[in-house]
Amino acid sequence: MQSIAYPLMEHFYTVQGEGANTGQSAYFLRLGGCDVGCVWCDVKESWEADLHPQVSVERMVEYVKAAGAVRAVITGGEPCMYDLLPLTNALHVAGVACYLETSGAHPISGSWDWICLSPKKFKAPLKASYEKADELKVIVYNNHDFIWAEEQSADVRSSCRRFLQPEYSVFSKMITPIIEYVKLHPDWTISLQTHKIMNIP
User: Fold this and answer.
1) Cβ neighbour number for residue 2 with a 10 Å cutoff
2) Are the C-beta atoms of residues 148 and 168 closer than 8 Å to each other?
3) Fewer CB within 10 Å of terminal CB in the chain, N or C?
4) What mean pLDDT do residues 110-115 have?
5) What is the CATH number that goes with domain 5-198?
6) What is the DSSP string of 36-55?
7) What is the tens place of the pLDDT at every residue in 155-166?
8) Can you tell me the distance from the alpha carbon of 180 to that of 77, in angstroms, rounded to the nearest whole number?
9) Where are the domains of the chain?
């Protein structure tokens, strides 16, 4: 029986730098392939799946276990372009919690301990993605994104945690408006890309 494999752009053991799980150790598995096309994406090299080697589920689990990690973050690219159930099942059998980072533009497959939905204007999330999200992380590039964030917030569960994160290239321009917005809208929390401050992957 042929092993299931995915295009793996990169993998590394680090500390989660943003969102609800900031500061927690986690092994990142970044899958290649994305059709969302965010203009400010900082990993555009992940977009073309064919540029990255196919790596088996078994090998990925070996990477995670060898590092001593207890959490794996599956990100991209857009990881939900693939059926992720075989990967999450294998990680769970190995005692590893599975965290997903997705735009929600494709059906969410797999068994997850935490789902971060980071919707993008370039390709709308599916309705089912909102219903599954534990965390809503909206990237703020300009002032209109506050309106858009509220539109996204209306579709997630009441228990879903809501984050506003300045796009890194406009941090100095947008951080003050975000601070003021969160003060007036306490359902939202600020997320910062602390891994860039710590100079880690």
Assistant:
1) 5
2) no
3) N
4) 98
5) 3.20.20.70
6) S--TT-S-GGGS-GGGS-EE
7) 999 999 999 999
8) 31
9) 5-198
